[in-house]
Amino acid sequence: MARRTKEDADATRSNLLDAAERVFYEKGVARASLNEIAQAAGATRGAIYWHFRSKVDLFNAMMDRVSLPMEEVCVEGEAGCRLAPLTRLFAALERVTGMVTGDERTRRVVEIAFYRIEYVDELMAVRERHLAVQARFHAQVARDLALAADEQGLALPMSVVVAAAGLQALFDGLLHAWILREERFDLQVVARATVMVYLRGLGFRV
User: Of the CATH numbers 3.40.50.2300, 1.10.530.10, 1.10.10.60, 3.50.50.60, which one belongs to the domain with range 2-53?
Assistant: First the structure.
């Protein structure tokens, strides 16, 4: 009986997350109400509060279910320290672009995170999470660029902090452009080629 109860609770939680994803996508995070999410899930508002403390908690749980690509990059980068730095960078790039282009749920959740959320009121907490992920990603890229420059005996034309910021902006811009366009380009091919040109412009042999 206890197992059945846990299975029911897990199913309710999953349904609520599915409903949150749909409602956040259709209405935007700030405008979506917990009542609307509960109704979309065929549940009660009380069921939401049984599983989640707030809308922010619900939003973060939705994001965690697919893992934001930038967060995946950070984790894989830290775990992949045995790879050569530029090899690790390109592996992370392919991992992210593969996740976004190959899985519809990931693409939809990334679109919510990019374009369907306003950093107001309680959602300011989500902004802090995004800033933390961006900072970790930037630090990882800067570290890999510095290691690669040392390996190749290269004096970069700018600091690794600035070079990493430029690469991060390039990558973010490609993701944003791909999400927005209805006639989508091949993100994996374009991202790899563009990043390679950027690195060569810095003087790297790639």
Answer: 1.10.10.60
